[in-house]
Amino acid sequence: MIGMNKFREILGYVSGFILFVVVLPCVMWLCSCKPVLCEAPLWRIIVAGALCACGLALSVWSIVYMRKVGNGNPMDAFNYEVAPRTKHLMTEGPYLLSRNPMLTGTFIYLIGLCVLLWTWQAVVVFVLFVVIMLIQVRSEEKRLQKDFGDEYESYCRRTGRFLPFNLFRR
């Protein structure tokens, strides 16, 4: 029999995969009037493939690292704990590159899809997703500040929200 925490953990991974790797790309494709992907020029297929692979690799590395080091799951939505949260503030591994490497990887993956689809509609879906995720991240940052205090503040000063450096303070 599977325990409730294990079930929530699996639910977190499955729902994250479905939402970010399946549903969102399908929405981008549908909003782009369903272009035939194999008709894209070779350079776009190569660039898109490289971006998608790099983005997914960064996201998977972050998830594995979060599971092993943070003893938690990435699925936390607008301060609602879908799956068990991490027990430790992670500042090493992929979290040296960004405070949100999983999301950064997702952004890179979706930029790759924008290159492949090559439509303004795909870009609009991407931008809307980024705006929603910025709201989510700000909500999560408040919780992390509460949970980890000065340690989190110090981490914010030395690591960018999505990039290895701080373009803007905080």
Textual characterization of the structure:
There is one protein chain. The relative contact order is 0.15. The protein is 66% helix and 2% strand. It has a single domain, classed as Four Helix Bundle (Hemerythrin (Met), subunit A) (Up-down Bundle), CATH 1.20.120. The protein is mainly α and 170 residues long. Helix 1 (4-31) crosses helix 4. It has a two-stranded antiparallel sheet. It has 4 helices and 2 strands.
Instruction: Report the uncertain regions.
Output: none
Structural class: mainly alpha
Q: Specify the CATH class.
A: Mainly Alpha
| Number of H/I helices | 4
N-to-C SSE string, H for helix and E for strand: HHEEHH
Largest sheet: 2 strands, antiparallel
* Shape, principal axes of CA atoms: globular
Strand order in space, largest sheet: 1-2
Q: Helix coverage percent of residues? A: 55-70%
CATH-assigned fold name = Four Helix Bundle (Hemerythrin (Met), subunit A)
Terminal Cα span: 44 Å
CATH architecture: Up-down Bundle
Q: How many discrete domains?
A: 1
Average pLDDT across residues? Answer: 88
Percentage of β-strand residues: under 5%
